[in-house]
Write a structure and sequence with these properties.
The protein is of the alpha+beta class. The chain is built from 2 helices and 7 strands.
């Protein structure tokens, strides 16, 4: 007979491999991405091979760029014998927080050769020189 305290200790160890499975699965289905910047713009490039621009939704809200979409299965299986398939299909989503100096209103996107490139202009720095303010009598 197994003691109650020993059995309770057994469940966490059995459960552990599955504990973060949902987030790992989401990471596995997330498209590979990279971010870069130059003096005037930020760029996010995301690999989306086989995804049409009609199947991608890009939104910008509250300083966050969100990309959602779906890679649809488009293959005929009539009469074919499949030995293996390593291709991934299904819905995906990624979100990227924009830096404070990103101009949310200037977001552009281009999908070419299976790569979605999102470009965001940087805000021009405000003049930081001190200004004299005239005080009027009230």
């Amino acid at each position: 007979m197994v003691e109650k305290s020993h059995a309770a200790g057994l469940w966490p160890s059995l459960y552990e491999p599955f504990r973060h499975m949902g987030s790992r699965l989401a990471d596995w289905l997330s498209p590979a991405s990279e971010a870069s910047a130059d003096s005037g713009t930020y760029r996010i490039a995301m690999e989306l091979p086989g995804v049409s621009e009609d199947d991608v939704e890009l939104t910008v809200e509250g300083g966050v760029v969100a990309v959602k979409g779906e890679k649809k299965v488009e293959r005929e299986e009539q009469g074919d014998t499949w030995f293996f398939s390593e291709r991934q299909y299904g819905a995906f989503s990624r979100s990227f927080r924009l830096p404070a100096d990103a101009d949310e209103g200037s977001v552009r996107a281009d999908l070419k050769d299976g790569v979605l490139t999102i470009t965001v202009s940087k805000l021009t720095p405000q003049d930081s020189t001190a200004k004299t303010v005239k005080i009027s009598r009230g």
